[in-house]
Amino acid sequence: MSRRKAVAAMAARCTVTVCRGCCCGTPKVPGVDHAAQLAELKARVATIAQVRAVDCLDACEQANVIVVQPSPAGRSAGGRPVWLGLVNDPDATGDIAAWIRAGGPGLAEPADVLDPYAFDPSRRVRMAIED
What we know:
Layout: H1 3-11, E1 14-19, H2 34-45, E2 49-54, E3 66-69, H3 72-76, E4 82-84, H4 90-102, H5 123-130
Parallel strand pairs: 1-2
Antiparallel strand pairs: 1-3, 3-4
Helix pairs in contact: 2-4
């Protein structure tokens, strides 16, 4: 595959942003194998989503934070980024991956089990990641 086709394929996928800064992904959130969580998420959605670890998303009270941004098709269908916090359970990581595999924001409804994880960050925080 040419570089141009590879870039186009990456752009057509959901983007999953995993906070790994100040609190998320650190011993400040005990009882979580943070490296395994990130590796599992990458492994489960590697062919259909871009997963990136970033520095602090400034939503520390919700650590560990994962933001699922829709694919272009999902955005066209009305999908918007979904912020998930307190993702400290391996089962939640699997549920997030299953939703992404089903299409993610705009194309598939998240499982009800993800409802307690969803939160609305402050506008300042949201704008930093969703630009």
